[in-house]
Amino acid sequence: MQGMKKNIAILVAAMLVTGCGYVTNRYSMSADNVMAARSWNGVMVNVGNFTEAPNTKASCNYKGPINTIDGESYGQFVRNALVSELTIAGAYSESAPITITGRLDRLDNATAFDTSWSLDVTLTSSNGKSASVKETYKYHGSIVGTTDSTCSAAAAGFVPAVQNLVGKMIREIPKSLL
Length: 178
Hints:
- This protein is of the alpha/beta class.
- Helix content is 40%, strand content 26%.
- The strands form two sheets. It has a four-stranded mixed beta sheet with strand order 2-5-6-7, with helices on one face.
- Strand 6 (116-125) and strand 7 (130-138) form a beta hairpin.
- Helix 2 (31-38) packs across helix 3, helix 2 (31-38) runs parallel beside helix 4 (147-177) and helix 3 (74-89) packs across helix 4 (147-177).
- It starts with a helix and ends with a helix.
C-alpha cells in the first residue's frame, strides 16, 4: 500500500509539472489571405494589442485545456496570425498611420455533437471606426471516437478556424476600418 501511495504521488507531481491537455498547431499562413491583403494596393496598417473577454479558455470534454502551442493567449495568437499574413503581403508597418486593435469577444469549441470552433472578434481602428468579424469552423470529430482523438481533432482544428477568421478580418479592414 505504501508503494502505491508513493506511485500516485509521483504521478500527480508529474502531471502538475508537465501539465495536462492538448496543444494547437503552430499558425501557418494562408495563400488566400496573403493575396487578399495584397489587393489593398499598397495600403499599410499597424496591428496593436489584441485582448480577449475574461475567462477566455478552451477545453475538451472535461479532459483538459486546449492551449496555444507557444502558450500565448488566444487573442495574442489571433494578433500574431494577422501580423504574419499582413507582413508577407507587404501590408504591415509599425509606422503606418492607422493601427488596428482587436478584442476576442467569443471563443467556443464544441467537441461532442457539433464539432466546431466559434470565434468572434471586434476590430477597432485608430480612426475610431470598428467592425465585428465572426467565424464558425466545423472540423471532423466524433462522439463515437475516443476522447483523445476528438480532443486532438479539436486542437488541430483551431489553426484553420483562425486562418478563416483572419481571412475575414483582412477582407473587412479595407471595407470598414480604413
